[in-house]
Amino acid sequence: MSDVVVITGANRGIGLELAKKYSQRGAHVIGLVRESSSELSNCAAQVIEGVDVTDLESISQAKSQLQCESIAILINNAGLLTAESLDDMSFERIQRQFDINTLGPLKVTSVLLPLLQPGAKCIMMTSRMGSIADNESGSRYGYRLSKAALNAASKSLAIDLKPKGIIVGICHPGWVQTEMTGHTGHLTAPESASALMDRISEFTLETTGTFVHSNGERLPW
Questions:
Q1: 19 φ, ψ to 5°?
Q2: Rounded to whole angstroms, how far apart are CA atoms 64 and 111?
Q3: What tens digit of pLDDT does each residue of 171-202 get?
Q4: Could you tell me if 41 and 73 are in contact, meaning their C-beta atoms sit under 8 angstroms apart?
Q5: What residues are labeled active site?
Q6: Which of 94, 101, 93, 60 is nearest to 77 (CA)?
Q7: 4-213: CATH number
Q8: Residue 130 gets which letter from DSSP?
Q9: CA distances (Å), 203 to each of 49, 165, 208, 221, in order?
Q10: Is residue 185 left, alpha or beta, with left meaning phi > 0 and alpha meaning psi from -120 to 50?
Q11: What is the distance between the alpha carbons of residues 217 and 212, in angstroms, rounded to a whole number?
């Protein structure tokens, strides 16, 4: 079998474009999604629906359905962005973002870890909005908190997995024109996906745990 690439949240946006492009390169793409889309079904080798990244049982059930013995690249892409401010401080939304954006990738990685062999790559799709040093505009409390926490978890994961030969990449996709951003941004989803694939290919054990922009820029914590 060709290299297996597993992508969460692969039914739209950046996740879908990554699925398309990896499929075009001959990879065996598996999408883990709540609901599939016709575009994902047409490009992926396997689609597993009904996957809730916040629920360990749901992830375990998805693992039992995977048509592979090992994973070359695991891309934790599923995420949620809502807007909180001092005038609209919804702690329920903040908690939901933390569950999806921070604990979700950690849960998925934990469950699928036995399928990651030496040389495998675990990619965390984060955001420069999780950078404390880069924050000059405030607000977006839930997203900023959840992505900063994901960065911290990913760095620890990189240290813990390095002896096993597993590489962790922490990636900011850029400001991308997707449904999440209201289709605003500097990059199209295909452009971002292509750049991300370049970054993913560059990650090594020597650079594991680094926080990078899709354009190659190293980002501050």
A1: -60, -45
A2: 10
A3: 999 988 766 666 666 789 999 999 999 999 99
A4: no
A5: 143
A6: 101
A7: 3.40.50.720
A8: G
A9: 29, 12, 6, 18
A10: left
A11: 6
Take residue 123 and report the two structure tokens written for it.
Answer: 């990619």
CA distance linking residue 31 with residue 40, whole number of Å: 8
Size of the chain in residues: 221
Give the contacts of 92 (CB within 8 A, at least 6 positions apart): none
Beta strands in 18-148 (DSSP E): 28-32, 46-48, 71-76, 116-125
d(CA 27, CA 45): 9
* Eight-state DSSP code of residue 53: T
Cα–Cα distances in Å, from 108 out to 8, 184, 209? 9, 29, 18
In the chain, domain spans: 4-213
Confidence band of 126 (pLDDT split at 50, 70, 90): very high
Q: Tell me which range, 1-5, 181-185, 203-207, is most confidently predicted by mean pLDDT.
A: 203-207
Q: H-helix or E-strand containing 139?
A: none
Tally: H helices and E strands in the chain = 7, 9
